[in-house]
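Bug #77: duplicate submission created two jobs. Keeping one. Sequence:
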Amino acid sequence: MSQIDHTSRTEATPAVRLRWWTELPLILLVYGAYSAGRLLARGDVSTAVDHGLAILRAEKTVRLNLEHPLNRLFTREPWLGVPADFWYASLHYVVTPAVLIWLFRRRAHLYRAARTWLMTSTMIGLIGFTLLPTCPPRLLSAGHGFVDTMAQYSSYGWWGGAASAPKGLGGMTNQYAAMPSLHVGWALWCGIMLWRNGRSPYAKAAGVAYPLITTIVVMGTANHYFFDALAGAAVMGAGLLLAKPVMRVAARIRDRVNTLAASGVRAAPAASSATRSSIVSGECQTSPGERIPRQRKAAAHDTGDGAAAPAR
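Kept job's structure:
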């Protein structure tokens, strides 16, 4: 994690003071773009199924097929399956914003680097959904041995039987955006933030438990393969590597905008001053006996014409 440490040290005295009324619209904008892009990245269903089956075969080849035993356990034991469904459907909407707010309020010198890391990784995940639409285990045919626990326990929660979205809104989500698992990616980000920056043992314990339990939940509910979880962790690693370059580019853009704005502000008074000084002698005063240029010659010339003769 040396990359984020170095970045955070450079952010210890941010050039621009953080304001919640600028941060909140930025986060909402990025999340809105991510959600819209995720929805528009729907691929062909048969292609998504082929990708899901290819992942499942690859896991079986290396004996990492952990989804089946976990899914059977969650299906057989409602006391595990129901809380797991609530965990999957709800916590990423709660814990991730809560950690962001905590960093903003209590670890402001770390916030910008951490936020950039999270947003960059999220956009990389969107690229994965677009290039590799993947059918989750729960949507494979019954012959593959998976049970959709969210459909099985939908009467217990606010989600519908078709997806983790609220009842009646299943069509508003892309159910074939399984690779990578950003549930796991975001949970890993939260865990690292809590582990590295939390001061109490409870915060550090939560930093370890949250991503581990989330990984188990996404497989036990048949929403993701184990390789999806690994891909989610890899996406967070890529986002960490790119966070510092992204921050540099953002800083250059911000400086450029500020420079243009400042030059515009300076140009306005200059133009106003030039307008006020269009008369040569405007706002000019002379001290007693002081002559402006050419005044001496003019005075001598006037003496010869109509000026009064000097007294004798």
